[in-house]
């Protein structure tokens, strides 16, 4: 709608006034009405997108008058509040609350603090959205916390006259844990890293062996793997690790049945049957075909059901009881969803209507009826917790300073366990994606429902912090996929093109505070994957809080578009050559990504232009590498030597690069058009590379040599 047009509302105001009100309401909700695209050019958001997003956030935008009423309601609500819904304060900083309020903090450790008002807080920094729920609510009065206030979750009370409010208060560390000295590590898609003992795909026992070998023999400080989040409980199991059913729990696909303690206690017939189930899957590990998760899970599930029937010893029963008590209702909800999904499918909106509410009597009755299956899915998570602990323990024993760096996906499947259990905290009718960029010129729609920012804050960020606690429990680090998820997400209305989405802001100070607190509790470093379209303030905030960014060779360019010299790279980062969304080095050098996108119809300009630009870019790279005295005859070794010359605190080497693999693991913008996430590790000739082969692999010394020193 253009300013000045007749909107046909019969005197409710001019279009200019209506647009101004709508834009102001959008700003109040953190919805952007324009943004800078990947070329640095301003782009306007369609009004249909703005209204759809505001509707998903709960605003009535059905008419200009409704928009004005909504603005008035928000203004009145903000003026009346004494506290934000959840207060997050970094150590050494001030609590923001209403002026002229009596503030008391009830400490989790016991005791109480009375806070006095201090100076007025600075206004929100121009060029970025409010950092916290308190800033978003317009609070400017600062209440300093005494030095030494313990980190952790407390409770704050505010009183003014007869009015009193209570809110959770998190005092978070001011910075993420420091990685210490420089370290390098392997990056691997775990499912693709198979051994002679794997059940058709890499598992936690393989990860333990990879960490032990690379840490003990090569001096690696970490190993970074793909998200291990839970998928479907029954076939078909979709391959993407970035579209999980739950980020709160782990996929039992990664269990090694023989490593479950009950295997040793099982009777000979059960062990023989398990070995028979394993045989065909082990044979698949030596083949070059696509990874078959359905076959692997069908066999493993049968084996694990046999192990679940083995009686627990008193010591094991006590350990299991402790695990169940620690996990509480979240574990019960996940196991219930899993049991129901086995019967009704993994998309809960298609279930019978009476099962849509996880707190309903019908769900309770079904949980009782399927108690055996609920118990089975609880047991799987216990075994996973034990095997994850064993992996991290082995990594540290092998000498790794960090150990396993786990990956956190951006979101979850809209029909999955998290979306069912926490459905009130997601924005309906929306999915998360990304605007068009250089490598995905049509934009992306990842099909994941976004958190509702205001409702998540009102819930004390409980599901978010529980998810982080789970992923970090046995981790030396956490990689945030699409790290902008703590600042803003690209929301795409259902049915719209990904290019017609918009950014919705989140209280990044709150989300970072929760993240840093959980990382502090785990002693784990945090790495943000801040590639693509990133506002400058985001990287500044990460650096201020000790969160490492990600610098990728193919994306690091100077002001003229040429490769960035190593001395100009930032220190607080994980430095890599590429990512799982691009071909390995050998494939990139040969333009495999261009050929693939051309074949799939994903290019928005002629392929000849793409090849020409790649040739110019690679020529610039070879010129830079040669000027540094590096031999470009082996580009893999040269690029890794280049990474070793940057000041980056962490250097990641893709295992696929190291063995000469050419195929990419994922082509964004596709589903079944390309075998995403199903490519087993192979060498340049297409021969499978097993974990057993790595210590003697002929290519590894040259590929890894530059970073081993």
From TrEMBL:
Domain MalQ N-terminal beta-sandwich residue range list: 83-173
Record has Glycosyltransferase as a keyword: yes
Keywords (A to Z) from UniProt: Carbohydrate metabolism, Glycosyltransferase, Transferase
Catalyzed reaction equations: Transfers a segment of a (1->4)-alpha-D-glucan to a new position in an acceptor, which may be glucose or a (1->4)-alpha-D-glucan
Enzyme Commission number(s) of this protein: 2.4.1.25
InterPro entries, alphabetized: GH, Glyco_hydro_77, MalQ_N
Family statement drawn from the similarity comment of this UniProt entry: Belongs to the disproportionating enzyme family.
Protein name: 4-alpha-glucanotransferase
